[in-house]
Every structure is written in structure tokens, then in C-alpha cells.
Structure to design on (147 residues):
């Protein structure tokens, strides 16, 4: 079974890692700053509910790509991201960290029938897929900054 953000112990671990993050930390790869990464994750947490809607890209063999990226392969380092996920300007470090802490803490399994958004690359995703993606995405960026 894949690691999912819907597991309370997983969320607790992510929150501990978030507390270790500092605004001046340099990335191990990529061009994001720590404040930009935090706002990037905040935007990503808006996608599963459909609050942030993005146009789907053409992806051949989408179900296979989704399965490989969520359940088999690590996220590639330095891969490009959608401009919408970089649109939020960092506010204050304390405000953005508090907002991300709230988003992670609130990431419990949605109720049956709750609205569910699409992913621009992976398309229509199950609740389970979103739980895995939210964890894997946060973990990827926390590793990027060494936390």
C-alpha cells in the first residue's frame, strides 16, 4: 500500500518536517526558494477539491503515466511545474507556514460524494490517488530542501 496523506501519522511526520524548514534554506536541486516552495504546495493542496482548476494537458496513455508516477517512479528532480502552481506570491514566512500547516493538518479523506478536481497531467483521479499524490508531492519538496 502506498503512503497517503490521509494517514494521521503521515500528516504528523510531514508537520514535523515542515517545522524544520527555514526560509533561507537552499534547495538541493531546482530553482525554487523555500518560501516559493511553501506557496507552491499551498496551491497544490487546492487542486483535489476542485478549488484550483487547471486545464488538462494532452498526455498519451494517461492512466499508465498516472499509475507509474504515483505508485512506481520517484518524482523527477527539476521537472517543470504548471504556472498556476507558482502564481501565489509568498506573504510572510509565518503566515505561509501556518497556512501550509493547516492544509496538511486538514488533509483527511474527503467524504463520499465530495467534489473532486482533476489533475492537469494525471486527469480524473480517485480519492486514493489524491492522497498518495499530496503526500508524494510534499515529500518530494521537503527532500528538495533537506527536511
Amino acid at each position: 500500500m502506498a503512503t497517503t496523506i490521509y494517514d494521521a501519522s503521515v500528516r504528523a511526520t510531514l508537520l514535523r518536517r515542515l517545522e524544520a524548514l527555514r526560509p533561507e534554506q537552499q534547495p538541493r536541486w531546482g530553482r525554487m526558494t523555500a518560501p516559493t516552495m511553501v506557496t507552491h504546495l499551498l496551491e497544490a493542496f487546492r487542486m483535489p477539491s476542485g478549488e484550483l482548476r487547471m486545464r488538462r494537458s494532452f498526455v498519451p496513455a494517461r492512466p499508465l503515466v498516472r499509475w507509474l508516477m504515483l505508485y512506481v517512479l520517484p518524482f523527477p528532480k527539476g521537472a517543470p511545474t504548471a504556472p498556476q502552481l507558482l502564481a501565489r506570491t509568498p506573504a510572510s514566512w509565518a503566515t505561509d507556514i501556518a497556512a501550509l500547516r493547516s492544509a496538511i493538518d486538514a488533509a483527511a479523506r474527503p467524504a463520499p460524494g465530495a467534489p473532486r478536481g482533476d489533475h492537469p497531467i494525471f486527469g480524473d483521479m480517485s480519492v486514493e490517488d489524491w492522497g498518495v499524490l499530496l503526500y508524494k508531492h510534499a515529500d518530494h519538496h521537503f527532500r528538495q530542501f533537506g527536511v
Q: What stands out?
A: The radius of gyration is 15 Å. The CA atoms of residues 67 and 73 lie 9 Å apart. The first helix runs from residue 8 to 20.
